[in-house]
Structure prediction request, 614 residues.
Amino acid sequence: MCKQIMCGIAGYVGPRKAVDVVFDQLKRLEYRGYDSAGVAYLENGDINVLKRAGKLNELTGLMADGTPNVHLAIAHSRWATHGAPTDENAHPHFDQFEQISIIHNGIIENYLDLKAELAQQGSEFRSDTDTEVAAHVIGCEYTEGVALEEAVRRAVKRLRGAYALVVVSKREPEKIVCARNASPLVIGLGEGETMLASDIPALLPYTRSVIILEDDRIAVLLPEGVRVTNLDGQELPVTPLHIDWDVSAAEKGGYEHFMLKEIHEQPEVVRQCLAGRVDDKGRARLDNVFGQSVWNNTDRIVIVACGTSYHAGLMGKYLFEKLLRLPTDVFHASEFRYGDPVLSPNSLALFISQSGETADTLAALKLCQARRIRTLGIVNVIGSSIARECDRTIITQAGPEISVASTKAFTAQVIALVLLMLHVAQEKEMPGVRVEEITRDLLELPELAQRAMLAEGEIIRAAEKMRDAKLVFFLGRGADALVALEGALKLKEIAYVATQESPAGEMKHGPLALVEKGVFAVMGATESEMREKLASNIKEMQARGGQVLAITTEGDDLIPKIAEFVVRLPKSGSEFLNALLSIIPMQLLAYHLARLNGCEIDQPRNLAKSVTVE
Ligand code: AGP
Prediction:
């Protein structure tokens, strides 16, 4: 199966100029990454489709003389999966009778079988996409006397895979019909207008009232509202959520890039993540997380996640094992789901995901559900699949993260893990865990994170020297070595610089052979007991022509004497929080190196924000 990155979906029906609205919505979804874009709108009883390979301005350029004055449109930005990024393969796609036009996010797994069946019945296809096949399936079902809603319902029963499908029709030009299974779809309710998108930020300028469409639901959008039914055609009640995010939180807010904005938001993110979660006795207060009987019976934690969230999971293991003495394993979700994991009934599975839609993580969650293992999520996006599917979920409250490179979500995930560790210590009545001291340190963290931002000047100086680096090592020991993994991922994905990450003590077991002039190391050195050993590691690097950017804490008088570049972080009473703070200079380094090298920071090549299909 191929890897697919989420596409952008937009739709509008109401009094405004619909094409302007859907273009604006797509623009707000640009962070997803895409290689082509298209729009379909209803005009004088006809469906007009325009689509182009390339960025959105290739498409909007086709309407340079002005957008049509129409009141219903759907639009799509595509990341190629089935078929190259060409005009033909871009969405929307017509059915075989040109009665309907559809856009789609996801993968129709049985599309080849369906295509063969349809071809036998006379269908001719203009593209290589699975989406066009889905359009033809709907076309088949959309016979005389059948309503579009019913045709979509019948069609989706024939589809296997993930989809958010959005359909418009010549015969019913006043409505948009959509269906969802495993790919996100959000409906926005306005005054006399209704809209949809694949993600909430696209709707925020228009409405705060949203419905997160559930799996196996069909929705019909009219200007006056929405009707949601299940696959049996039964109408279901809907409860809109009120989204109180500030619109500017989903926009750049004066920063050159979302990534920089999100790095600088971290002090506030820590505050938000802690909000209401530490009581006035200095105890952690996590609502809706399992209680004492569950934790007393849990003998192993299994953490499953991808990418940055996986790195947060490693910090979770560090905390749970070091402070709770609770055996914890961390798995890449893509390995876990196919690895036939050993799970006892007393295991508890913890899923970490910013988006809550990552396909591998979701599949791993389903595997644990099938094995009847308790599941707990740490998720940023409320209403996302993982947030809804887990038995219990802790929302990280980091606000929308737009930049493809995850920054503030990592910090929030680690804070949530610290809170969870404290919650377990409280429930299990473990006096050895200094709960009140740690919560006090947590409450001080926003201020320390703010001071950590002062490192930016030194980081820019180091980035200028590292512009032509052949290779950058990311080293540390203990928790510093874990955060270093995340620092290395940032540099790779944003600045396209090759990195080698390893615990510092491993260097002489092999990686040291790579060190020569032009090679740098970023060294996490926040743990005071390890400094002498790290000083030796720095010298090993330097003796072979390497240079070192060391991240240490105030009061260290050893490392600053020897490293070429030094960042001194303010000191927290909890050493693992010092290690967490060290991610800030590492994120800033990736950002400034990428900026100096002219990289596309918010949308790095080959990557996009959410990986919703395997
Ligand atoms: C991080 O910068 C990446 N964008 C990526 O590794 C990401 O963390 C991963 O795809 C997991 O996403 P999730 O947290 O939304 O599940």
